[in-house]
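Worked example 3. Consider a protein that binds S-adenosylmethionine.
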Amino acid sequence: MKSFRDFMAERVREYYVSPEEKFSSKGDFFTAPELDRVFGESIANFLYHRLKEFESPVILELGAGRGLLARDILNYYGKEDPDLLKRLRYLIYEISPALIEVQREVLSGFDNVLWVEEFPQIEGVVLSNEFYDALPVHVVKEGKELYVSDEGEEVWLSLEDERVKEFLKRMGYEDLSQRVEVCIDCVDMLERVARALTKGYHLLIDYGYTSEELPRFQEGTVVGYKKHSLRGDIYREGGMDLSAQVNFSALMEYGKDFGLRTVLFDSQRNFLASIPHFLTELETLSFDESPESVERLSRLKTMLISMGDRFKVLFQSKGL
Ligand SMILES: C[S@@+](CC[C@H](N)C(=O)[O-])C[C@H]1O[C@@H](n2cnc3c(N)ncnc32)[C@H](O)[C@@H]1O
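Given these inputs, the predicted complex is written out as structure tokens:
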């Protein structure tokens, strides 16, 4: 028997460490950087003036997948401001040895990329796309915590974890009569991020909710994905990507403890629609009728429309 948190941590680790293809049509899911290079370029455009201010700017990316976001950001700076590219160091924190191999290959043209296991002290930006949703959650309901038996059955036991109790109190969730997911690992990650930033920013893009939206998820938000479809039996079926939506209210609230100030919190749609590079590309593609441009335009629309509301963007600053 183990807590759902430990069960999810084990499953996610097994999943990402295994060498099977996870991304694109051959794998289990598409992420925005996999859809089109404009996603990474737009993030680079958004961060440009802020990064330029630092003498030795650093980007630290958490959970870099196939390295496409890193590639598109670095290519953008290489084109727009080669001097910034020369000054920039790009660090990657990644759990999967198989994906690190892919990242090394994809990023082999850049000599300023390094892989880290600990977060060094940096001035710059810590960023991630679909990383926090892979961190494990405690699942609680009405004073009980969810455990998983060795046979894959759900078992509810009295909630004893003091940090989980404290979280429920602080977030005002104590009296809710629904499943609530508590991501203490997210809070700990946020603290690590804040400690790493001497000064700079934290940019987090993921699907998630706020406290006000919690009633929409009476049965929680944990899902298992395999080959682009939702799986029913997350306990007995292996080899799938388990994730839980990110509680953005909690990250904004706990961020205050670590000196992280919320600068911006919005949907991915509004975020992208506010970035000049994204709008220019959207306009250029909409005037071009070549099959490639039509295909790319539809991918950009996916980022704006079907992903646009589910995905949210949190941008926090520290020491600025
Ligand atoms: C859903 S993928 C997203 C990849 C990429 N950011 C993208 O948008 O395409 C999650 C990434 O986080 C990594 N990851 C998951 N859990 C992690 C952990 N605890 N520590 C470091 N990396 C982790 C995975 O190996 C993978 O690269």
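Take a moment to read the result before moving on. Residues 37-52 form the longest helix (16 residues). The chain has twelve helices and 16 strands.
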